[in-house]
Design a protein that fits this description.
2 copies of one chain form a homodimer.
Chain A: H1 6-24, E1 29-30, H2 32-39, H3 43-52, E2 63-64, H4 65-76, E3 82-87, H5 91-102, E4 107-114, E5 123-124, E6 127-131, H6 135-141, E7 146-149, H7 156-166, E8 170-173, E9 186-189, H8 192-205
Parallel strand pairs in A: 3-4, 3-7, 4-6, 7-8, 8-9
Antiparallel strand pairs in A: 1-2, 5-6
Bound molecules: nicotinamide-adenine-dinucleotide (2 copies).
Chain A binds a DNA duplex (30 and 30 nucleotides) through residues 5-8, 31-33, 42-45, 47-48, 50-51, 56-63.
DNA sequence: ACTCAACTGTTATTTAAATCACAAAGATAA
DNA sequence: TTATCTTTGTGATTTAAATAACAGTTGAGT
């Protein structure tokens, strides 16, 4: 299958989560307009995305919920589950760990890293916190593929470099410091201040 | 000035923050390619954004840092400063409050809301936490314009409705439940699970 | 059997965003 | 002075994403 568009991948993740609820409620089929209503987008957008992954529904009953969930899984998840580390076990980092721990997805946070001795050798929602210096070792040992950065901004570059050297495949950076990494590593950045300033702008100017 | 593109607004927020550091370091002028390097984007992107806000630099020295910061301020900020509420003083909500409190921007978080009696009548990084039922009253009284939702997902719809009724102008929703609001209110949604699943996909398939 | 209503799947079009390509201008150096 | 270098500003083009438009299918109702 061809590489999917960015936005399609984001929506597939959301379709899946919406459908897990649907399934839990005992419904086995779903129409594009039902998915669309949940996410407040258009049905045609839903159908197009589903077309892109090569799945096809039935005319009378729409999509088979379990099948579609399954297929989205084969696209997003890796077979054995994806193992994730959080770097920086501060207020944001520990909130993230606790949060993901509650979900049952193929993503599991299996390690935290910090430099503060007070944070080390503790469990955060069952996840052990290791010293940052051991990052290379633990990433390999635990077969960790992705990392979330939640350290102070001043540390971002150093952390990113260590992660890349350790062989991480993807990084989600919640720090306000933009980083750049080898094109081998997929990088996603998100900055809450930017997001809130954007809300401020459009709330002020209307849209 | 015409309404700016979404992405331009996001970048302007980042340019400003980058330039605040520049200014602190004693530099008074900056070239498009210097800004671009900080954010890891192209210089032409920077120039185009700056063109859209009608500012113009000088050929030999690039942009005047203070002037550009000032102008971005008039675009994004509101004169008197923007007042923000956080609904849900849990792990994410309180992390956000603490975080924003440290920055000195025109955005200030001035109130939290919760339903849990244990959370009420306390200060989170100096911000008072009010009972959710008083939201209408406090939003008006405190002249709050924007809100961040960080309650459990099950509460999102109810919270959003209350916020809209209270006359909020913009909402940033960190809950995984999509909401829809009157087109009078600007809505931005961000879901960490989606973000991390996107990283998983592109780390797996390469991009 | 025929018609209608309600879906899906897909092509064509539009809109939004990013990039390319280059003219214009000011400083510097020969 | 004139050539050259560096940088901005912007029209033209390309790419990515969303939307529109509609053909095709199937079952229900008659
Ligand atoms: N708290 C929020 O809601 C929030 C929101 C948006 C962005 N952020 C960003 O997230 C980051 C973390 O924020 P926070 O509020 O959790 O801060 P925090 O200070 O609570 O946590 C940072 C943690 O990182 C650890 N750390 C420092 N250097 C490290 C290193 N080299 N390796 C590993 N760990 C290291 C610290 O010991 C600390 O535990 C910041 O960059 C902040 O800008 C936070
Ligand atoms: N913690 C994270 O890192 C994280 C990451 C991504 C998304 N989220 C989302 O953010 C939301 C909050 O997560 P959290 O980890 O902080 O949860 P949490 O349980 O720690 O906090 C939720 C808070 O909301 C309060 N609350 C419940 N109903 C309310 C209501 N009607 N009005 C006001 N407050 C109410 C609760 O009393 C609690 O204090 C969840 O929807 C979660 O999906 C959290």
């Amino acid at each position: 299958m061809k590489l999917l568009p960015d936005k399609t991948v984001e929506r597939l993740s959301q379709y899946r989560r919406a459908m897990l609820k649907t399934l839990a409620s005992g419904k086995h089929h779903i129409y594009s307009h039902e998915i669309a209503n949940i996410l407040h987008i258009t049905p045609v957008q839903v159908r197009r995305d589903i077309m892109l992954i090569g799945y096809t529904g039935t005319l009378r009953h729409g999509y088979d919920v379990s099948e579609l969930i399954e297929i989205i899984g084969t696209i997003i998840d890796s077979e054995e589950g994806t193992r994730v580390a959080v770097v920086g076990a501060g207020s944001l980092g520990s909130a993230i760990i606790r949060y993901f721990n509650g979900k049952r997805t193929k993503l599991s946070i299996v390690a935290a890293f910090d430099v503060n001795p007070d944070k080390l050798n503790k469990l955060y929602a069952g996840v052990p916190c290791y010293p940052f210096e051991k990052i290379q070792e633990i990433v390999k040992q635990e077969n960790i593929q992705l990392a979330v950065i939640a350290t102070p901004a001043s540390e971002t570059a150093k952390v990113a470099e260590a992660l890349v050297n350790a062989g991480i495949k993807g990084i989600l950076n919640y720090t306000p410091s933009p980083i750049n990494v080898s094109s081998q590593v997929y990088l996603e950045e998100y900055d809450m201040v930017t997001s809130l300033e954007k809300v401020a702008y459009f709330a002020k100017h209307g849209k």
